[in-house]
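Residues determine shape. Take a concrete instance:
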Amino acid sequence: MTHTALEYLSVLLLLSNFALLASSRLGLCINAVTVQGVVLAIIPLLHGGDHLGAASILLYAVTLAVKGYAFPHLLRAAIGRANVRREVEPLIGYNTSLLAGLAMLVFAFWLQSRLPLTQGGEGILLPAAFFGILAGFFITIARRKALTQILGYLALENGIFAFGAASLSEHPWLLEMGILLDVFVAVFIMGVALFHISQEFDHMDADRLASLRDPVGES
């Protein structure tokens, strides 16, 4: 029963990453990241079984609160302030992104087959984690808007978190706590930057910021 539940949750991770690759709607992408946060709070509880202590359970409760509520809430607030709803002109189109996603998924399964299986390495949880890392990295370089790039960064971090939950059978919270703190700081800084950028410019395309020049320096 537990194994079946893990498989279903792993499929949800896969589908949520495909949604990030395929959709231009930022609201839908935030929902996909929210699903990932909820899934990642549940997977270690199922995977750890009797090995979970009070500290680990507390960590995963915090994970649910932060990844399943706090981050999505902050990102929706950023969308409202920046008045942006879609990624209209990505660097790599959505059809091409889906094809790249399929290639990344095949690579993720191949990578699992080449690695020594650890406890929990069977099934599709590890390929789902590898796919999340690859998809998140792809989104950060294939999208123009800074907010979409943040979503890609979160997807990448969620993939690392899933890998930790799948492969570390003893005290995985040490790795995950460090990652959680890092991503919290990163999202906080990015949120502040997005707020100030949206106050000064009528767009949020990251590549267009490179065209800014200092008139004093040029003269």
